[in-house]
Amino acid sequence: MTDFVLTDLPLLSRAALDRAEHLRPDTDALRAGWPDAVLLRVNGRGQVRITDGDLVLEPATELGDTPVPGAVFLGVRGPLHVWAVRVPALTGELGDLRMIGHRLDEASAGLLTTAVALLNWHDHAGFSALDGAPTEPTMSGWSRISSSTGHEEFPRTDPAIICLVHDGGDRVLLARQPSWPPRMFSVLAGFVEAGESLEACVAREIREEVGVDVTDIRYLGSQPWPFPRSVMLGFAAVGDPAAALEFADGEIAEAHWFTRDQVRAALDAGDWASGTRESSDAELLLPGSISIARIMVESWASAG
After folding, report:
1. pTM across the whole model
2. CB within 8 A of 189, min separation 6: which ones?
């Protein structure tokens, strides 16, 4: 069974957000919308306040009478403008995208995903990549301008491939990073290098990480992954289970070929965040639902 498709959109790819790009440079419109605008506060760990399983959106006017430096305009939700701001600390019930993403509706997931990605970029874009001069936010947080040359820089997104390697039949190759606890496995992933096609990246990363040459590379789908600012590009490829596994680059601690029945049992047991991870008889723990890896594994397991 070499051919399968995603059975559903990855969870974060379902996020719905009216970004209202036309408002970003319109300072008059943003000032006019500020008195009724709402605000999402995000701490340095990407956590937000939650209540009843949803985001807490506060009046933007708590920051001041007009849009304040450092606040980023996310878009509109109904008639209201929505902004986000980085804060040093938060109190109350907190959650991050990994923890609560599966519980959010599409609109809230879109707000949080965009806020985390955009604020993460600002955290590391305070100086121009051209001349090292300080930069200042502009376009309501969607670009930064060099104070020296006026050069404009935009939010960076790093493309990364993520690939489910299978044998064309009933086995899939899953791997564990050194920092992960025992029994936690996922599909293989890596960043696209300069001057490299996505397909070439898939072949290189699989070879570097586990020593396997792959064929029949096919695109499956994508999802945003704001940790810190990536987009995951999902692929499937076919590998040979008889090939020796070699972990040359140090990014993989171990990898094994698992049968479809083993994967189905692991999917039925839950995910990394469930109580199963503490169970001594769980031979395999799989990624949580907000990762595209989850829907890739589910789609492969349901095929055939």
Report:
1. 0.92
2. 160, 161, 162, 163, 205, 232, 293
